[in-house]
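EI: anyone free to look at a 346-residue chain?
SC: sure, send it
EI:
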Amino acid sequence: MIQKKLDNARREQERIQTDLENAIERANAMAVEAEIANVELNQIINTSIDGLILIYENFSVKRINASLLNFLDLSETEAVGEKCYDLMPSSWCNTTECPLTKLLRGKAHIEFDIERTRKDGVTVPFMFAATPFRGFDGAVIGMVARFKDITERKYAENTLKEANDRLERLSAIDGLTGVANRRCFDETIQREWTRLQRTKDYLSLIMCDVDFFKLFNDIYGHQGGDDCLKSVARVLQETARRGGDCVARYGGEEFAVIMPVTGEKSAIYIAEKIRQTVEKMAIAHNKSSVALCVTLSLGVATVVPDDQETPELLIKRADKALYLAKSSGRNSVKVWKRSKEASPKD
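SC: here you go
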């Protein structure tokens, strides 16, 4: 009986020893697998061209890949264990805008564009994307963040924006003279009317016409006519050159000058200066009945915009003044004046 018990105890001891050896073998195999997985994970992380970083809830850096280390000009030992706000200080640090703080409070995903400056002073644009990092129980214990270099994308976006801006500018410019075109004139006078309606300030408009331009074209040809219009446009730009002034080709040989915050006397002065400067250029015009050179007729109208009138009415008044200048001998400046009998809508 005693021998039987001893045999049973021996067999049990052998079984326990075998189980222990098997457990040790399995543990060793698991450790090897874990090590292999860790090596593989490190290789995956470090071969990524994007910067990757794992930050725990206490803001300490747990993992950081070679790409981000290279950007920060740091070694792994210099980065791992450091606080993220010391490693990469940002405007959101210690605020509710901190991505980690947002993820810990339930945010599922964060993505936006940022700029970071390398130690050599070069600023690089990145797309920053962050997601929660969870523990075995599923609770959020940190975040995984990715820094994707978007220099090429930003370059393409800026190039496209510059092209669109250039196209927008070209669409507002008269192709021959280089001044604003009719579309730009219409938009500008409406915008200034609305603005000055609020500020209760003056808005003046000069309309001008090249005298006997059709006859000029007949004598000197269309190329000569184009050169004449370019010269007149240049005078207009050089004379009405304040920041808010807008010189536009209104149509054919007719030009307009929108002059915000400009009273009648100042507008008349500018119009007369334009007329005199064009005459002094002495561009030959043998078929003109008022001079032997190119001249201008100009009409001026000034209002304080209000909701009782419209920009179209201001144009109409300046045009009436221009018609008066042309009908009274040309090469002159005339001003629209409301007659006593005229209605407010004249």
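EI: Residues 340-344 have pLDDT under 50 and may be disordered.
SC: 👍
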